[in-house]
Amino acid sequence: MGDTTAILLEVFIIFAAAQVGGAFARWIRLPSVVGQIVVGCIVGPSVLGWITPSEPLEVLSEIGVVLLLFAVGLETRLDDVKRVGGSAFAVGVIGVIVPFVGGAFWAHSIGPDWPRSLFVAAAFVATSAGITAAVLKQMGVLRRIESRVILGAAVIDDILAMLLLGVVVAIQAGGSLRVSRLLVVAGEAIGFVLVVCWLGTLMMRRGSKWLERARDPMSPLLIVLILCLGLAWVATRFGLAAIIGAFLAGMIASETRQRMQLEEQMQPLLALMTPFFFVLTGAQVALAELASGEALWLLLVATLLALVTKLIGGWLGALRLGVRSALIVGVGMMPRGEVGIVVAALGLSAGVFGQQLYAVIIAMSLLTSVIAPPFLAMLLKERGPTPEARDQIRPQDRASTGAANK
Amino acid sequence: MGDTTAILLEVFIIFAAAQVGGAFARWIRLPSVVGQIVVGCIVGPSVLGWITPSEPLEVLSEIGVVLLLFAVGLETRLDDVKRVGGSAFAVGVIGVIVPFVGGAFWAHSIGPDWPRSLFVAAAFVATSAGITAAVLKQMGVLRRIESRVILGAAVIDDILAMLLLGVVVAIQAGGSLRVSRLLVVAGEAIGFVLVVCWLGTLMMRRGSKWLERARDPMSPLLIVLILCLGLAWVATRFGLAAIIGAFLAGMIASETRQRMQLEEQMQPLLALMTPFFFVLTGAQVALAELASGEALWLLLVATLLALVTKLIGGWLGALRLGVRSALIVGVGMMPRGEVGIVVAALGLSAGVFGQQLYAVIIAMSLLTSVIAPPFLAMLLKERGPTPEARDQIRPQDRASTGAANK
User: Do A16 and B230 touch (CB under 8 A)?
Assistant: First the structure.
């Protein structure tokens, strides 16, 4: 008890600050995640220093984003994602290539040699599904065609980012690049996603009758939470982010008959746990390192580059949905969030770049996460469901969309 | 993300194991907390070694028990506790004196000098409200007169235990015992409880209209969770356990009109978080240190002494409720849980006793937490609500008890 007292204060501060920041953001008509990230920067070490990122807080944050992506998966049907599979694949692939190439040329132009530049470029690649998913969920538009493309692309994006990181680490360390090894890693990750989707969906469609017989109304929730935490961990064993496993677990659970009840029960869990993810994300930024003209200039260029390359990549990939929908997808892919932070931390500990570039990459990741949501919200508000999406909505889905909009 | 992967596996193991242990316990007609504590001992370092208590897990455990006591407070009305104030006070005081005197004589008889014996005796004193509260909540009997006496006594018990620990630490360290300082500490703690109850209840009775106007159905939950986490931390500043603050926050929140909705929304939170508390409690025991005849003998005597002295103390204090009700109160006060563990950890780090006595005290704390619940459940099942309790149940309370029984 004694040593958890200090953490208890930080837990309280994070939770209370998140509510204040979220409410303020909604008041000025911004998505509440933006307020929570900004407030995290304020209570974090850079400004007030009320909280310091530590292992216990990071675990709370990780559980928060795992539950968030599980809940997002719960509102996503595998069949719907399959139907947009081609677009999602194109968005995932082109959305990785354009930022990587752009990031590499920019990094090389400011100094580092090519191997190091490729490493820096890797930080421009991976989309953070958590931020966008939170916005889509809050607006109740998870069933729109653009949302499904974004979520499908996020899975492909994560697989590609993992492979790319493997490549740049090998190149930077001067090791020989073993293509066969990379193919095995890629095969394992893709196999994991496919097997989980296929087996899980099959089992849940048959098993949900069995779940119904449980007398305790909490039992289905407990069983799917075991699935969620289990797959989150297994995903990390296959080199993927934990949130990908949680998202797949949510998609599996969405095949059960208890889906509506589960969505309802997830609400309090998200209310308690997701603030830790968003506030901690904001708390990572080191403002002191950015307090020079040179650093600010680097940050400005890096952020613009990150936003524009991902926008172009996502837009090109989703063009077959129409120009406007492709724009929504492009903006939805812009946040880098925690993935850029992980690459930056790797780069710092491997000595690939110094404190300043590290701070710039982290701040860039956060800025993309703060800038994208308002644009995404604006674009989504401007138009109702697209005709093709409306045609595809089945009666039970309409009910679910209505509930999410409440 | 990288370094939280290992913890993610432990989080999964704890959560899954808790469900298996809880289901097994219910199957053999024991309260599920018993199964969760035992399974914690099995997956913990002593047997399988699948999980190792660490700071992140302890924080999850602390948040779990804080939420549990908040939910218990939510089902407790301040007025009902006030009505049994005399009995609760007597149970708290006598329930501290008898185990302390008994523990001191026993400790002195096995070797340590008097100052050290008093320190050991302090581990016999404090009741762990978490275990008993979980059993009472699971059985849906939180509104029975015995439950209210136990919960009121737990608050008084915690204040006395804190003071006693201050005294024995001072005596053991050879410092002079400053009565004036102790009176200030006691005054602060009592003042905190009274002010929180009075001000909080007043504010919530007026404020719940204002809560009703919030459009988001999650808003009242968010506000009371801020209160819960805040008071949990403030309680630790007054030397009390965090769970006392959380319990008071729950009692305050129970005065709002959103009480039923809040109880409903707390269910998923408890389902996710409380397993960490019970499994971690079980994981603390060091079986290896107990693998000798001498240690087992010590453990047997210590456990019997802890059970009997608390039973007598609680029984004497609650005698005015009738012999049977007093028995229920006595059994309800028996678990020592995490409080005994804290005293033992203090004693070990202060060099007051060695590894063996440390392991014995921890195992004793856990054994009381495993032994008491089945007896409590048995005693509570044997009879319906007492006549006096039935008279006091108002219509809205009856509905709430029914919901809890579902």
Answer: yes
Q: Which amino acid is it at A16?
A: A
For chain B, the structural domain boundaries read: 2-405
Under-50 pLDDT residues of chain A: 1-2, 385-406
Q: How far lies B97's CA from each of B94, B103, B188, in Å?
A: 5, 10, 22
For residue B179, which phi and psi values (nearest 5 degrees)? -60, -40
Chain B residue numbers with beta carbons less than 8 Å from the beta carbon of A19 are: 222-223, 226
Residue type, A101: V
On chain A, the residues whose CB falls within 8 A of the CB of B63 are 11, 60
| pLDDT: which is higher, B25 or B101 | B101
Which among B272, B273, B286 is positioned nearest to B41, based on CA atoms? B286
Subunit contact B5:A342, Cβ cutoff 8 A: no
Judging contacts by C-beta atoms under 8 Å, the chain B residues touching residue A59 are: 4, 7, 11, 56, 59-60
C-alpha span between A143 and A403 (Å, rounded): 12
CA distance A323 to chain B (A): 34
Is the CB of residue A291 less than 8 Å from the CB of residue A122?
Answer: no
State how far residue B2 is from chain A, nearest Cα, in angstroms.
8
Buried b / exposed e across A142-166, counting CB within 10 Å, b at 16+? bbbbbbbbbbbbbbbbbbbbbbbbb
Is residue B5 less than 8 Å (CB to CB) from chain A?
A: yes
Chain B CB contacts of A56 under 8 Å are: 55-56, 58-60
Residues 239-268 of A with CB under 8 A from B: 241-242, 265-268
Angle at the Cα of B350 from the Cα atoms of B349 and B356, rounded to 5 degrees: 65
Q: How many CB atoms lie within 10 A of CB A341?
A: 21
Q: Are B163 and B40 in contact (CB under 8 A)?
A: no
Closest listed residue to residue B145, CA positions, set B104, B56, B85, B221: B85
pLDDT tens for residues A318-375? 999 888 889 999 999 998 866 677 777 777 777 777 888 888 888 888 888 888 888 8
Q: Which residues in chain A are closer than 8 Å to B243, comparing Cβ atoms?
A: none
- ipTM, two decimals, is 0.81
* CB-CB under 8 Å, A5 with B218: no
- For B271, which of A3, A60, A221 is closest by C-beta distance? A221
Q: Is B387 on the interface with A (CB under 8 A)?
A: no
Chain A contact present for B71, CB below 8 A: no
Average pLDDT over residues B134-147: 86
pLDDT tens digit string along A179-195? 777 788 778 888 888 88
Residue to test with chain B: of A3, A4, A336, most B Cβ within 10 A: A4
Tell me yes or no: is domain A66-274+293-398 CATH 1.20.1440.20. no
Name the class of domain B2-405: mainly alpha
Looking at beta carbons, which pairs linking A186-191 to residues 24 or more positions away fall under 8 Å?
A: A186/A159, A188/A238, A188/A239, A189/A159, A189/A162, A189/A163, A189/A238, A189/A239, A189/A240, A190/A159
- What whole-number distance in Å separates Cα of residue B43 and Cα of residue B40? 5
Question: What's the rounded Cα separation, in Å, for the pair A66 and A64?
Answer: 5
Helix axes B219-237, B55-74, angle to 10 degrees: 110
| Closest in A11, A56, A66 to B55, CB measured | A56
